[in-house]
Amino acid sequence: MNQADRRKFLIQKLLDEQPRYRGMEIPQDKIEQKRLLRSLFNIRMPGNISEDFLKIQNEYLQEETVLKGITNLADLSPVQEGVYLWQGDITTLRCDAIVNAANSGMTGCYAPCHGCIDNCIHTYAGIQLRLECAGIMQKQGHEEETGKAKLTSAYNLPCKYVIHTVGPIIHGRLTESDKELLASCYRSCLELAEQNGVKSIAFCCISTGEFHFPNDKAAEIAVGTMKEYREQTGSDMEVIFNVFKDVDYEIYRRLLGAD
């Protein structure tokens, strides 16, 4: 099977799962096919799937990531000892763990092709990630608290683990409680990573964007919490601050003295 064959197979299997979409024709255009497949991944509720599906899905997603281009931590240059600043797609970064800015349901974003990092990570990890998260949440019995963290496998991503954390959602004026909750996200992720032998961790810009935390304040908390943790614990875990937008790159570059 080539990528086109795999994509059509996956689309058809996912369409067949949905009674309302059975009989829907698969578009001929490759871009439209990719968008449809991602949408079907996004809306699929946690549930069992065949081994044949998983095998072909894994082959497809891993090849898509190779085509996008994988960035290895070993090829990056630190801006401080053990600290990196990297602008790019976190789903293509090969390190021990990446951080996902999750919602309190913790099973990913169900909005088709939404641009949030939660959607991207779940899409390219594969449906196994949602299944694992759903199992964790079923066992927990309640929504995830803001400022906590959970660790899962990364499945088809180049990293080993995904650490999921729920950041504060800002409504109106930023409060001290909001700031402490965001700091707790970073501390919880670092502590959980250390407990699981993680040697390198990549942070996204938690709570900015859809959760409306001011970018500059969020970055100050991220860098400050990282420095405080390293000073208090003596940790030599490598930390990557991953940004996607130019504005965040400039903010972190200033804070980390990367000029």
Structural summary, described in words:
- This protein has 259 residues and is α/β, with parallel strands linked by helices.
- It is 46% helix and 14% strand.
- It has helices spanning 3-17, 30-43, 51-68, 117-125, 127-140, 176-195, 215-233, 246-255; strands spanning 71-72, 83-87, 93-94, 97-102, 149-153, 161-166, 200-203, 238-243.
- The strands form 2 sheets. Strands 2-8-7-4-6-5 form a 6-stranded mixed sheet, sandwiched between helices. The chain has a two-stranded parallel sheet with strand order 1-3.
- Strand 7 (200-203), helix 7 and strand 8 form a beta-alpha-beta unit.
- Helix 1 packs across helix 2 and helix 1 crosses helix 3.
- It is globular.
- The model has no long low-confidence stretch (mean pLDDT 95).
Features:
259 residues, alpha/beta, six-stranded mixed β-sheet, 8 helices, 46% helix, 14% strand, globular
What layout of secondary structure does this protein have?
Layout: H1 3-17, H2 30-43, H3 51-68, E1 71-72, E2 83-87, E3 93-94, E4 97-102, H4 117-125, H5 127-140, E5 149-153, E6 161-166, H6 176-195, E7 200-203, H7 215-233, E8 238-243, H8 246-255
Parallel strand pairs: 1-3, 2-8, 4-6, 4-7, 7-8
Antiparallel strand pairs: 5-6
Helix pairs in contact: 1-2, 1-3, 6-7, 7-8
